[in-house]
Design brief:
Chain lengths: 278, 358
């Protein structure tokens, strides 16, 4: 071919997706961004200055990050061993675990959150069980606490930790663990020198998934912790829906967007660094 | 089978997976410094036996004794048994030196000790220049060398190699066979080598264990296996042979006569009259004359030129085979020529037919 490159016809296949996303997502996002950088019709960063000057807003950012971190960590601690078990299970056992992980995804987040409301109440099963086990002296309410929020959110997001780790692990040759054993490595050593580095790309992906979803979740905190505890996402919602303050709403949305993008980009960098391991 | 205590002693090793008996009471004694091949068709249990010795699966019954220690229940990481896996199983997240040094690191050796050992073992397999390469950037043969170096670096009491050359092309394979023998000789390591390639087993081994359906049918030197196969299976699996099915028609004083499609063939054996038998003769033992004492006639069907010699195929009944090796095609012979074949009595190998009690 001489000089100019022609458009690969295959790339036209993404046109519908690009068009759709551009219209219903890209355009509103641009409007939103515009809103946050425009005050009284002139470009300005005044709303950001105001936002970062308010200690309350810093607390909201801290809340958001703390909850997202906790959800990510707990999901990792629960999801990683599950992914290992899933990758090693065979036949019917593996199918059963997979179904147990994927089927709940078909239950809507709202339904799940309402279910957790019942479970976490003062007279809910968790409270009753802990009293019965003498962990607690009297029934307590987990609903509307940070612990309750983390528990509920982990339930919603943990499949997104398990599945990427599992998809990496199932490609790892089980012979590698055996090879390490025959070379004299005990279980502890094998975990840290073989299993861990080999599952790292999956862990990085899972962490990015869960963190970016947890940092921006709206329904779960609305239902499980309520208005007294604000995150960037719930504050954004409140600004638009209750306070009729699109200026503040678009500002918090931009802050949230920057945080989420930073995590996704950072983890993509990390996984490229460890990409040699998969 | 010999029962002299070996350096490695596997006694009555048995393994079943579900309903399938994969190892049916295997005995194997290997002397210190010996190179023993496990030779057998796919699925006969070679890998399973190797994995039991390595401790990667537990046998249902039997014992494994290495250098005087009963290691039957010992976990693999405390066995001192190096394994070269069929697919090499190199650690993809480590470079070549990292792979070779892994075993010493796992043993808690100091870096000052690991470095020189890695270097020495990489030199041994002629991979010294590749220490810093990621293993993904190596060819099959290079990966294979690294796998050998990695297993040798722990200075194991025993090396187990599971078809390490099966993925390599013929030329590389032959070079690697010579290299491996040299390396093991230099280090003096005892080795068990799995293969289903008879030529590989014959050229490399001190002794060969011919495996069939979860048992060792014969354990002997390559020449014993070739010249005195213990079973019809060993005759078939190792080397070429004329092979005729028949029935024992008379037996007396350690000699039998077997009635085959090509006539009656005498042999030295103890078999009951009336029992089904298989007669075998190695192709190079057959002469194209009637000097006897075993003489048959067969029609020439095919001639295979093999360089220095020719291989003559004779007409044979279903399931039989007639193969003769000759320096050259006899004058005037061609397809359809009637050939007279004869051989010495001691060259008739005779076995009870498979499934027949001896
Ligand atoms: N984990 C297992 N579960 C069930 N069956 C198994 C298992 N491992 C091996 N087998 C069966 O045991 C038999 C022997 O297997 P093994 O791997 O020892 O054969 P092999 O002699 O090494 O064959 P190949 O030359 O093909 O590698 C096979 O029929 C195989 O299907
Ligand atoms: Mg095998």
């Amino acid at each position: 071919m001489t000089g100019f490159r022609r458009l690969d016809p295959v790339s036209l296949l993404v046109a519908p997706a690009v068009g759709y996303l551009g219209l219903v997502y890209g355009l509103p996002l641009l409007l939103l961004l515009g809103h946050s950088f425009v005050v009284d019709g002139t470009p300005s960063i005044a709303s950001f200055v105001r936002f970062f000057a308010d200690p309350f807003d810093w607390m909201v950012i801290a809340n958001t990050l703390r909850i997202a971190l906790a959800v990510t960590l707990v999901s990792l601690v629960i999801g990683w061993p599950t992914a290992i078990a899933l990758a090693r299970a065979k036949g019917a056992a593996q199918a059963a675990i997979l179904v147990a992980i994927i089927l709940p995804l078909s239950v809507g987040v709202v339904v799940k959150a309402f279910a957790w409301q019942i479970v976490l109440r003062r007279d809910g099963v968790v409270s009753q069980a802990l009293v019965w086990l003498h962990v607690w002296d009297e029934p307590q309410r987990l609903l509307f606490t940070e612990t309750g929020l983390v528990v509920g959110a982990v339930n919603v997001f943990v499949p997104f930790m398990i599945l990427p780790i599992y998809s990496v692990l199932k490609l790892v040759d089980p012979r590698l663990d055996e090879a390490a054993a025959t070379l004299g490595a005990g279980p502890f050593f094998r975990f840290f020198l073989v299993a861990l580095p080999l599952s790292l790309p999956g862990i990085v992906t899972g962490v990015a998934f869960v963190f970016s979803m947890a940092v921006s979740m709206y329904v779960v905190p609305s239902l499980l912790i309520g208005d007294r505890f604000q995150t960037l996402a719930t504050l954004t919602g409140r600004s638009f829906l209750f306070m009729r303050n699109p200026q503040l709403g678009s500002t918090t949305a931009v802050v949230l967007l920057v945080l989420a993008v930073a995590v996704v980009v950072g983890s993509a960098k990390l996984s490229r660094r460890f990409g040699g391991a998969s | 089978m010999t029962t002299t205590p070996g350096f490695l002693d596997v006694a009555a090793a048995a393994k079943t997976f579900g309903a399938a008996t994969v190892l049916d009471g295997v005995d194997l004694a290997v002397a210190r410094g010996e190179f023993v091949s496990l030779l057998g068709p796919s699925g006969c249990g070679k890998t399973t036996l190797l994995r039991i010795v390595a401790g990667l699966i537990a046998p249902d019954g039997g014992r494994v004794v290495l250098d005087g220690d009963d290691i039957t229940r010992r976990p693999p990481h405390r066995r001192d048994v190096g394994v070269v896996f069929q697919n090499y199983a190199l650690f993809p997240h480590l470079d070549v030196a990292g792979n070779v040094g892994f075993g010493l690191k796992a043993r808690g050796r100091k870096t000052a000790e690991i470095g020189p050992s890695v270097e020495r073992h990489l030199d041994l397999v002629r991979m010294g220049a590749f220490a810093d390469r990621p293993v993904k950037a190596l060819s099959g043969g290079q990966q294979q060398r690294v796998a050998v170096a990695r297993a040798l670096a722990i200075e194991p009491k025993l090396m187990l190699l599971d078809e390490p050359f099966s993925a390599l092309d013929r030329k590389l394979r032959e070079a690697m066979q010579i290299d491996l023998k040299r390396i093991l000789r230099e280090v003096g390591t005892t080795a068990i080598f799995v293969t289903h390639d008879q030529d590989e087993a014959l050229t490399m081994s001190d002794r060969i264990a011919v495996m069939h359906a979860g048992r060792i049918e014969q354990l002997g030197t390559p020449s014993e296996i070739y010249h005195r196969p213990a079973t019809a299976f060993a005759l078939d699996f190792v080397g070429l042979s004329t092979r005729l099915a028949g029935r024992v028609v008379s037996a007396s004083g350690g000699e039998v006569v077997v009635e085959t499609a090509l006539g009656r063939i005498p042999a030295r054996a103890n078999l009951y009259p009336g029992s089904a038998a298989v007669v075998g003769v190695r192709p190079e033992r057959i002469r194209l004359d009637a000097a006897g004492p075993c003489t048959v006639a067969a029609t020439l069907t095919d001639v295979a030129f093999q360089g220095a010699r020719v291989l003559l195929h004779g007409a044979a009944a279903e399931g039989d085979r007639v193969l003769v090796e000759a320096p050259s095609l006899p004058d005037g012979a061609g397809q359809g020529t009637r050939l007279t074949l004869s051989w010495a009595l001691e060259d008739t190998l005779v076995f009870p037919a498979e499934g027949e009690a001896s």
